[in-house]
Here is the input.
Amino acid sequence: MDAPYILIGYAFALTLVFLGFGVIRRSMPELRGVRRLSLFVLCGVAAAFLLAARNHVPALLSVVAANMLLLFGPLFFYAAAAEILGVRPGGIRWLTALSLAGTGFLYWFGIVHPNARMRLLTHGAVIGAIFTAAALLQFHDRDASPKAAVRGSAWLAAGMAVLQFAWAGYPWALRVQLSLLHPGVVDTAFSYLATLLALAAVGALVWLSLCVQRMELQRAAQTDSLTGLLNRGAFETILRRELQRSHRSGASLAVMLIDLDYFKQINDSFGHAVGDSALRRISAALSASIRPSDVLARYGGEEFVILLRESGVVDAHAAAERIRCDIQRLEDLPEGVTLTASIGVAVNLPGESPDELILRADEALYRSKREGRNLVTLYRSPRQDKVASA
Here is the structure.
């Protein structure tokens, strides 16, 4: 089959994909990376139409401009991957410089000294390098992104890179002659496979973007917007799961409720902005004070809660005293304010529900407040008193 008919088929197929991206952008404008992916596809559409019109437009358009679009289009793919993952596209300048250099080679071997092999070598090497960079960007992702989606997208980008390098080298390795107007079976197969892989890689990035968005929505639903800590609902879900595990294994865990003393006076005296800043500072201090295995959350207002895994009466009480002292010693709070905290601690009992455990910690907290504040009170059952005194 002649190349123009193949290219026109590609162009119309890519046009449908581009129109599909338009629908996605209108229905989900917050979806990251879609605009750049649509530009990647648009470059492919324009390049395919220009290449198909080879006999009807100047070579500067059908050779240089078309191949320039093919070289610069993958840069949008790379930028889309970076945007979806929320990372800085650090290699974009080098890849842009590589595409510009490739454009110069294509001009030289397309207009000045026509050489189909060298054009194919330049084309494949540049596009292969850009897709390699996109694959590495995803393979090296260290964020909490959905790993399966990231790896799938990365492998498709890597496959596209390998195909481009192979396509660039096969005329040299097999010493075959190229006919751009009447491509052979191998050339046609390579072009079909490259188109399918590129579309698969684009589809994988769209799926990755959807997964990232869903993950961020779930994270936002579980996170306190002011402090960045877990919110009450997320904590209660974790507590329920950990209590079930504790009942099966027999290991103990503790809940620590922390309430900042006289915090309303800070809001009344200095305003809510200072109060919010103080809450963020306290959150950072608490995060630094707990163990990696512990779970910290903002329970509401100026109240925080900590789940201490593998902690009995003695360990939980010691941890609460340490945290109380850490809060009292804080000196870098806004407006020079000082804060203390009242703390209530309860260690779980066999078969106890999350509500029952929280209620006992809450009772201990209010006992700390009634007895003068800036205190730690441990709610202990008679059985726990016996264990502690033994």
Observations:
- The radius of gyration is 31 Å.
- The CA atoms of residues 62 and 115 lie 15 Å apart.
- Residues 176-183, 386-390 have pLDDT under 50 and may be disordered.
